[in-house]
Amino acid sequence: MLVARTSRPYVILNAAMSLDGKIATYTGDSRMSSPDDMRRVHRLRASVDAIMVGFNTLLVDDPKLTVKFVKGHAPKRIIVDSTARTPLNSYVVKTAMDIPTIIATTAKASRRRVEALKERGVSVLTCGKGPLVSLRLLLGRVRALGIRRVLLEGGGTLNWSMLSNGLVDEITVAVTPKILGGERAVSLVEGRGVALVKDGVKLKLLGTAKYGPDLVVRYKVQN
Ligand SMILES: NC(=O)c1ccc[n+]([C@@H]2O[C@H](COP(=O)([O-])OP(=O)(O)OC[C@H]3O[C@@H](n4cnc5c(N)ncnc54)[C@H](OP(=O)(O)O)[C@@H]3O)[C@@H](O)[C@H]2O)c1
Q1: Pairwise CA distance, residues 173 & 90, whole Å
Q2: Residue 178 pLDDT > 90, yes or no?
């Protein structure tokens, strides 16, 4: 099993994607993994120290980010939320006393919101003063807290920031046999993108496997 360098954790991006590259429909529905693939994802979750998602994923899905179907420890949860708007009634906040939960913000987050989250057991890490969370700072700080392997579970905007900053080591995508379309449907990677194919993030195929109807492809990122 591959684990961290010392400056940041080893990061694995995992997603379920339609054949046309969408990770959700235009309404935000993202339930596309087969039961077999779900079991693979939960085995992967059980192998990491923390699971990380972006603020929109938190809002749209209200995810649990826990391990089901397989025996294993509960990974920590990291929410990337610049202004600390994570709802106090979200699942991750309601269970923060039992499952360690980190919300990464910037200095722009309101002190009142930060205090409300802390009172509910959330650890709030201020990562930079910019409009968005400094992901490099965040990863360095969680590594210092002992987090050596992180599973990045999207969405597309956070995936772009992580990939374009060279902060992802491995990618696993379950291609679900569906085409979803939709100009406003979120793709595996959003953001500005690159102008030329030669400047794209370079990947090396590690393997393929079939999980029920889904084709799972694994790549190493050539950072
Ligand atoms: N099929 C799958 O495997 C899968 C997995 C995950 C998500 N999804 C779907 O993806 C959709 C959400 O994706 P999304 O692209 O809209 O949003 P996202 O990537 O989940 O969240 C993006 C938000 O994170 C916050 N953020 C803070 N610092 C950031 C940084 N440095 N870089 C990037 N983001 C930063 C920003 O909000 P603030 O400015 O408010 O902080 C930003 O708008 C949902 O529909 C969800 O269901 C699907």
Answers
A1: 27
A2: yes
